[in-house]
Every structure is written in C-alpha cells, then in structure tokens.
Amino acid sequence: MSFLSQGFSPDIVRALTECGYEKLTPVQQQAIPHARRGQDILAHAQTGTGKTAAFSLPIIQQIIDEPKPRSRANVRALILAPTRELVDQISKNIESYTQYIDVNVVAVFGGAKMSSQERKLEKGVDVLVATPGRLIEHMELGNVSFANLDFLVFDEADRMLDMGFIGAIRTIMSGVVGHPQTMLFSATSSPQMNALAQDLLRKPKRVIVNAENSTAETVAHVVYPVDEDRKRELLSELIGRKNWQQVLVFVNYKETANEVVKELKLDGINAVLCHGDKAQSARRRALEEFKSGKARVMVATEVAARGLDIQGLPHVVNYDMPFLAEDYVHRIGRTGRAGQQGHAVSFVSREEELTLVQIENLIQQRIKRVQLAGYEPANRDALLVKMQSKPAYKDRQGRTNNADDQGNAERRLRLMRAIKNKSSKTTRLKK
C-alpha cells in the first residue's frame, strides 16, 4: 500500500520518497485511515514501526487542506514525548516530511536556551513537539496558547507515566480549550495506561500492531548468567570474541556507566557515554560518534531507552536488568527495527533472576540461556531452587507507575552498598 493511495499531497509523497519511504508499515496502514477521518486513536505498537509518520502525516495533510494564519503563541498541533532525544527525533522527521510545504515545526525541551525557543513560539506554530516539563515552563510565561489547538498527540505515553509525568499532563490539559483530535501511542499496556486513555480520548479507534507488551519477531534474545563483579569482563570478552562492531549497552546507574566505559577503553574498545549528567550537546555528540562508527560502544542509562533511532543497530546489551519488566521491551526496541535482524543480550546475576522471570512472563517467551565457560555464577542452581519456593517468586508485581519506586530501589541499593563497604573496611582493619 502506497502513501499516494492515502490521499497525501504530491509534495508530501515526494518528501517521503526522498526519505526512503516506499510502502506503509502495519501501524501506518491501520492508524492513518482513522486519523484522516479525524477520529481519536489508541495505538499499541513497538518502537521502530513507523509511528511518527502514522500520527504526523494525517496532521500535516489536514493543515494543508485547511490552512489557518499563524498568530502569536498559538499552536495548531501539539506532540508530547517523554525525552529530549525523542522530541528532537520526531521534530526532525516531521521537518523532512514537510520540506516542500509551508508547515513550520518547533521543538522545545530542557537543556536548550529558553530565549531561542521563545522567539520561535512567538510567531505561532503549526506543529509543536515538546517534553512536558519544558512546555509547562513556556505555558507559565505565556509563550504558548492552546486556545485553537486542533491536534494533540501523546507519543510513548507509557513512558511518560513511568517517569511521573501524570501531573504535568494534567497541567497541560488544563490549558487546552475544546476537544482536539487526540492520538495516544504506547509500546506497552497497563491499567494506568488504560485509565489515562479513558480520560483523554473520545470513542477512540484501537490500533494493535503487535501483541501488547511483546517484542519484535526480528530480535533474537539470549541471557548470560554471570556474577555481578564479572559483568565488565564478560562484556569486553563478548565484544572482542564475537567482533561486535556496534553495541548499545544499558545500565541502571550513571556511576556504572562511567565504570564500564573506563573498563572498555582500557581493553582498547572505543566507547562513549549517554546519561543524565551529560549536557545535551555532549549526549548528541556521543550519539553521532556511535552512529558514524567512530565509537564502537555507547553505554547509556534509561534516559536513552526511548527516542534513539540508530539505523541497523545489531546489538543491545542489558548490562543491568531494568527496574521494570516493561523497560526491557523499550530497551531492546532499539534493535531489530524496520524488519531488520537484531540481537538482545542480557547479563543476569543471581540477584536479578526474579526480574528475568518477570520479563519472560511479560513477553510470554522463554529466553535462551548461554553459559560462557569461565563465567559461571556461583551456586546459581541452588539460588533458583530457593527462589522458586518463595511466594514472592509467583506474586512479584509489575508496573506501578510510581515515580518514587525507582528512587526507593536506588536508595536501598546504595544503602546495601554502603553497609557492604563499611563491613569490608572493618574486616580489613581487623586484619
């Protein structure tokens, strides 16, 4: 099915052709007809399936069909996304779709100068792509108005809930006048997600491309059981032995990311960092080095789990298992995109076995385990037997959408580390 068959203007089709778009992806085939009819949409689809075009192309065509003069601070279409990386990516995609038509696109997110964003907003905006936090700052300063908003999109809405943006979403909605056409896109589903959809959408058309909370069929999954203190060594071993040339590595803590990059460089493997302590310019530079092949490995925290579009990325490694099982789906969604083959590797320590079980239950798939000689974890079988006898093994909860949960988990882990370090120090003093 071609884009021309959907009634898009020749100028849009021309731009899409130059972008390498030939046929509609499944999510585009399902969502675009509903969106073109002005219906609200609730869509569940994996990352890398063409969601941006699915929700933005109908908006762009409607703006062309019903042009309205731009006026100070007024926004015609608002697209909300959870991270600056995703906002930047969406806005650039839409700019490429509109290169031959008069539709202006503005991106606002933290880490960039407010003044330059204010100047762009002052003229009026056809399509505004924003993170919730920075958008609220502009709302409070009177830089944006949603009095004439025609279109509203929530991309990666489940991630917004995970990051605690529900309050910000309510604040933004309080400034929306009337009932714009609303589309909500999510990679995973949950009761909280459904409740949000019920609040925001009117008689939505439901689009499901893959089974909810599933992973792409093009991704091969494998688990390496390993003790926590051997993970860095195992990562270097696999990259060297298997000659992996482009590897995205996910960790849970910034400190871990720094340590892993340092270790990789000592082993002669060029690696870059992407986490919250890095300035936006530094993160963008790291991504460009990784994409171009100058850096072989990029080590990232959860901040990079959404919005990174790395064409043909072959390998994703979960150095640390994610705090939420759903985040496993988002992390490995960086590979196996657009029908290409991908490889998802997870390092699982004895303490992370319960998380692995939760992930397997979520994706309804048993992940293959590979034991690399020399890296066998101590007493792993005994631990598994012990865990399976506990009620927590069966009753372990999934998504809570409580922004404090991850912080509490981090604080507990820091406390445990402090106790362990104190104990080790005391033991050395006694010796």
Automatic annotation (TrEMBL):
Region (Disordered): 389-411
Domain called Helicase C-terminal: residue spans: 230-378
Keywords carried by this UniProt record: ATP-binding, Helicase, Hydrolase, Nucleotide-binding
SUPFAM superfamilies membership: P-loop containing nucleoside triphosphate hydrolases (SSF52540)
Residue span, DEAD-box RNA helicase Q domain: 1-29
Range of residues in the leader sequence: none
Helicase ATP-binding domain residues: 32-207
GO cellular component entries: cytosol
Entry similarity comment: Belongs to the DEAD box helicase family.
Protein name as annotated: DEAD/DEAH box helicase
